[in-house]
Design goal:
The chain is α+β, with helices and mostly antiparallel strands. The chain is built from 18 helices and 12 strands. The structure holds flavin-adenine dinucleotide.
């Protein structure tokens, strides 16, 4: 089995050589940090990942979450308690949270690198911590002073846990159909919440003394649809004025899901107000709840890309190690069966699988770190123009981070199993669990189909194409830089050709906006070709840095040559499909639209 979960050298390459995160230290917000504190955070995260999170990975899956329908109480596996305690002790709940809230105020770029490592080790476990952190950020951003004082520090310290409760049985992708209600309690500051939320991650457990649920619900006079949804903070237990835990708040657990993967995660059905006594507190203004929640969800979508890529990274490291140890067959040119067998890494077809995994995980990590870096720039830049441009880029890249990230991470994990052969199919090895865990990343946080519609239907056209144009500008800049490096010529030409193809296809599609059904029927193939361009751009950018290091006589030749090989491989193979997709879209294929239900 591999003793590596991620490639730490690659993380440092992206942070320091590509994104040059030390530049963030000039800002007042991050001035208390240094390259040393960044490195310490990464090393300490890796230690936590290796020593606490990874040892709990399979045991949590095997033990599963226990729900007792008699007491309606939920217990998580014992090993999860160790991860929670170590996360509390090390301050891993609030790595990017404000110091004034008890956090460590690291830049988001470093925070995402830390998350990547922890998800690689044990994604189900990290979700308990990440969900808590998300709830803390939401309250810090939109809560009033009393709410902030009540919740944020406790969540940041891991004393209380947090969730996000949007989904209902009839309202999954379609949040406009949320039915949970909130009625103002007479002469009191709270509302009475009634309704059922399903599939709530970390929805109930025995890790913390209280669980804080941000809940979407409707006021009685609310307009229908998304414009009538408000956001309420609903704790599992109420508390006394001194902050100590008080009465049960009538948040009753209806059950926990028995799932394909993430079996150590308590995905719960929650009945709010089963006995008519569930108190919730309105956050921000009425009917603006979905807009507030989207702040959390945009971060959570990028986080989903991070967790998918983290799991794929661990699977890749396992496959790589295994391929060096597993002896099977001989070189095609070796006809003598008495000669010893060779390690499977020497078979070109196995190397194809490994290169695909390397390109997917490293290309995605580069994009996710870039997206995190945009959030840092939005936070610290004094220029309104720069902030707006960074926000535009972040908007258009979010569906790529989430949807393409989870799709190729799944494919990458499939390839890792293929490298293991029959042993990959066995639950004796962790690869099978990684694949089971991976599947949900294309489903939650807005399914990948919904992400594709968000990209084509909203992000590409928003602000008269401002986000799209900003991205084209960034890609063109990298192409121009790469033009100065002769060994990158072929790769650069291919990325430039794909950029032209994506621009042409986007313009072509715009003519179809009059037939919106047909336009949207191309959303998923469009997301795919768009993402292939984005990942190629990131890999070309990395190649520029790698080529310069090689030209400068670096002693780490293998590392940089590996970067170039992964980039070339992706551009020669995956990016080539972008042109095919463009041709298919151009043919005006409308079978999916015209096909009748009865024909299926
Ligand atoms: C393990 C797990 C954890 C989760 N955690 C949380 C959580 O913490 N909080 C929370 O609130 N929710 C959570 N969810 C719920 C999750 O967000 C939903 O499952 C998801 O949004 C999809 O909703 P649905 O399951 O009702 O599927 P549906 O909405 O019924 O979708 C079914 C299929 O139809 C497609 N579809 C639906 N509508 C459209 C459309 N308009 N156009 C095109 N295609 C469409 C979808 O893409 C999908 O392929 C979790 C789910 C799981 C499985």
């Amino acid at each position: 089995m591999s003793d590596k979960l991620v490639n730490l050298r690659d993380i440092r390459f992206v942070l320091y050589e590509v994104l040059k995160v030390e530049g963030l230290l000039d800002s007042e917000r991050y001035s208390m940090h240094s390259r040393e504190t960044f490195d310490m955070a990464i090393d300490a995260a890796y230690k936590l990942a290796r020593e606490v999170c990874w040892p709990a990975y399979t045991s949590m899956d095997k033990a599963g979450v226990k729900y007792d329908p008699r007491t309606r109480k939920t217990e998580v596996p014992e090993s999860m308690h160790r991860v929670w305690a170590a996360s509390k002790e090390g301050g891993w709940f609030g790595i990017t949270s404000e110091c004034e809230h008890g956090g460590q105020q690291f830049p988001g770029t470093v925070g995402r690198a830390v998350e990547f490592i922890l998800h690689a080790a044990n994604t189900a476990a990290r979700m308990y911590v990440g969900g808590t952190n998300g709830a803390a950020h939401l309250i810090a951003a939109f809560g009033d002073e009393k709410m902030k004082a009540t919740y944020v520090e406790k969540l940041t310290a891991g004393e209380w846990a947090g969730t996000m409760a949007l989904t209902e049985p009839q309202a999954g992708s379609s949040l406009s159909d949320v039915k949970t209600t909130a009625i103002k309690a007479k002469d009191r500051d709270h509302y009475l919440i009634t309704g059922t939320k399903s599939f709530i991650s970390s929805g109930d457990h025995d890790l913390a003394e209280n669980i804080v649920h941000p809940v979407l619900a409707r006021l009685p006079d609310a307009p229908p649809g998304v414009k009538g949804i408000s956001l309420f903070i609903v704790p599992k237990y109420r508390f006394r004025p001194d902050g100590s835990i008080g009465e049960f708040n009538d948040v009753v657990t209806g059950g926990v899901e028995h799932k394909l993967g993430l079996r150590g995660q308590a995905t719960a059905t929650l009945n709010f107000g089963e006995n008519g006594d569930c108190h919730g507190w309105l956050m921000g203004e009425p009917n603006k709840g979905l807009a507030y929640m989207f702040q959390l969800m945009n971060g959570a979508r990028i986080a989903t890309g991070v967790q998918a890529t983290g799991v794929a990274s661990n699977a890749y490291q396992h496959a790589l190690q295994y391929s060096k140890e597993r002896l099977q067959g001989r070189a095609i040119t070796e006809k003598d069966p008495t000669k010893p067998q060779i390690a499977i890494v020497n078979h070109p077809d196995v190397r194809r699988m490994l290169l695909t995994q390397k390109a997917y995980t490293e290309g995605m990590f580069a994009l996710l770190a870039y997206a995190a870096n945009l959030t840092d720039r939005i936070r610290i830049s004094s220029s309104a123009e720069e902030r707006e441009r960074a926000q535009d880029l972040l908007e258009i890249l979010t569906p790529v981070c989430k949807a393409y990230g989870s799709d190729i991470s799944f494919q990458s994990t499939v390839l890792a199993i293929q490298v293991y052969g029959g042993y990959g199919f066995s639950e004796e090895f962790p690869l099978a669990q990684m694949l089971r865990d991976q599947k949900v990343f294309s489903i939650y946080e807005g399914t990948n189909n919904i992400q594709a519609m968000d990209l084509l239907g909203r992000k590409v056209v928003m602000k008269h194409g401002a986000s799209f144009k900003a991205l084209v500008g960034e890609i063109a800049k990298t192409i121009e830089e790469a033009r100065g490096l002769a060994p990158l010529k072929e790769m650069t030409d291919k990325v430039e050709a794909a950029l032209r193809t994506v621009i042409d296809t986007t313009q072509q599609l715009a003519k179809l906006l009059v037939e919106i059904d047909l336009y949207m029927s191309y959303a998923s193939p469009y997301l795919q070709m768009f993402s292939q361009l984005v990942i190629s751009w990131q890999l070309l950018w990395e190649s520029v840095v790698a080529q310069k290091a090689l030209d400068g006589g670096s002693s780490e030749r293998d590392f940089y040559l590996g970067k170039l090989a992964a980039a070339q491989f992706y551009v020669n193979n995956d990016l080539a499909y972008a042109h095919t997709t463009a041709r298919i879209i151009k043919t005006g294929d409308r079978v999916a639209l015209d096909c009748q239900e009865a024909w299926l």
